[in-house]
Write a structure and sequence with these properties.
The protein has helices at residues 14-17, 58-79; strands at 24-29, 34-40, 49-56. It has 100 residues and is α+β, with helices and mostly antiparallel strands.
Length: 100
């Protein structure tokens, strides 16, 4: 299928389209990349599982941040403010031990 200049097609395979639930993201970085681990924590279980890992350049991480900010702004304009129910920091501050 032809596309206009500057456009591209994205293929979404059935097994990926189903998605993976995560309720925590752990982010690490070096000078050349950002690593986003999407984790599923279960109540009463002290060991959480990384369900997906995404590695990207700092430039793409910043583009992702802007895209998330824009989508959150549009979501809240349509559905109302997303309220956080606790006073914890918005991201983990340490204490995680992982296994490769």
């Amino acid at each position: 299928m032809e596309t206009k200049e500057g456009q591209f097609q994205i293929e979404l395979k059935e097994d990926i389209a189903e998605g993976v639930y995560a309720n925590l993201a752990v982010i690490a970085h070096s000078s050349s990349e950002f690593v986003l681990d999407f984790v599923r924590m279960m109540p009463g279980v002290s060991k959480a599982q990384v369900k997906s890992r995404i590695v990207m350049t700092p430039e793409h991480a910043k583009r992702l941040m802007f895209a998330l900010q824009d989508n959150l702004r549009r979501y809240e304009a349509q559905f109302g403010e997303i309220r956080l129910h606790d006073q914890r920091p918005p991201y983990p501050t340490g204490g995680f031990k992982g296994e490769a």
